[in-house]
Amino acid sequence: MVYDALKDEMGDERIHALSLKTFSPEQWEKYGA
Could you say which protein family the record assigns here (predicted)? Predict the structure, then answer.
């Protein structure tokens, strides 16, 4: 889903690397909100 949304930018190298930090809903409540 993420790469599909950014495929144009990834394809022409405007974005050349992507790092994701993902959380479960419980982790988001504890650390992210």
Answer: Belongs to the BolA/IbaG family.
Q: Say which residues have a Cβ less than 8 Å from residue 3's Cβ, sequence separation at least 6.
A: 10, 18
Q: Are 18 and 6 in contact (CB under 8 A)?
A: yes
Each residue of 2-26: pLDDT tens digit?
A: 888 888 888 888 888 888 888 999 9
Q: Across the chain, where does the E strand assignment appear? A: none
15: Cβ–Cβ under 8 A, 6 or more apart, which residues?
6, 9
